[in-house]
Design goal:
The chain has 236 residues and is of the alpha+beta class. It has two domains: 1-79; 83-234, Calycin beta-barrel core domain (Lipocalin, Beta Barrel), CATH 2.40.128. It contains one helix and ten strands, in the order αββββββββββ. Strands 1-2-3-4-5-6-7-8-9-10 form a ten-stranded antiparallel barrel. Strand 3 and strand 4 form a beta hairpin. The protein is elongated, with a radius of gyration of 44 Å.
Length: 236
């Protein structure tokens, strides 16, 4: 009887142990399952975010490449000589010139002579003029550049010479019907104590072997008057 009681006691203890173990393990399994789901959700979100970031990066890269191409195309258009550069070709060559200079509108002009070379430079983007001669009894040297600014859509020019220390700048237009360049700008005039005296020039192509340059500025009375005339004749 004692053995039977002991057996029953052992059986009940084992059963209780099994039940208690089951109660312990089941919550653990129940708790692990949501954790795994959360991890899967996070991993999925990370993967989706990464894919979205990759797609956004590709789209941004494509947009950047497109912008670069458009910018380069615009710059190429700006840097390429076009139809508006062609009229300048009429001035290219080697020339002898005669210049007249009026100190006042009423005075007789002084005359002198010289020679000029005008040539294309920098791939046909600008013409460069170099001149040598006499001016008001002194040796004269000068150099100028003229071109067409595709962005500003106007002719541009600069001029320097040994008769001063400033740089004359101007912008202008071309009339194909009259074959005339008209230019406006400013120059330093120490005789009148003007740092930016306005001027206007007209360059007329008289034919394949001659062109005339005229410069106008305000006289003492404030009215525009001709200051200079240069007739260029092509060297034979």
């Amino acid at each position: 009887m004692k053995d039977l009681a002991l057996g029953k006691s052992f059986l009940f203890s084992a059963l209780a142990l099994v039940l208690s173990f089951g109660l312990f393990v089941m919550p653990a399994v129940s708790q692990d399952s949501p954790m795994d789901s959360a991890k899967d959700a996070v991993n999925s979100a990370v993967d989706s975010t990464k894919e979205a970031a990759d797609e956004a990066g590709k789209a941004m890269s494509q947009e950047t490449d497109k912008m670069k191409e458009e910018m380069m195309a615009k710059w190429q258009e700006y840097a390429t000589p076009g139809e508006n550069h062609k009229p300048l070709d009429q001035l290219v060559g080697n020339w002898d010139y005669t210049v007249k200079f009026w100190e006042t509108p009423e005075s007789e002009p002084s005359e002198s002579t010289g020679s000029s070379e005008i040539k294309w430079i920098l791939g046909g983007r600008y013409i460069q003029q170099t001149s040598k001669g006499m001016a008001m009894g002194q040796e004269f040297e000068g150099m100028g550049l003229m071109g067409y600014d595709n962005a500003k859509e106007e002719y541009v020019n600069v001029w320097v010479d040994n008769m001063g220390t400033g740089i004359m700048t101007g912008t202008g237009t071309y009339d194909a019907a009259t074959k005339t360049f008209e230019d406006k700008g400013t120059f330093s005039c120490p005789m009148e104590d003007e740092k930016d005296k306005p001027y206007r020039t007209v360059t007329t192509v008289n034919g394949p072997d001659q062109f005339t340059f005229e410069m106008f500025a305000a006289g003492p009375d404030g009215n525009e008057a001709r200051m200079m005339e240069i007739v260029y004749k092509r060297k034979k």
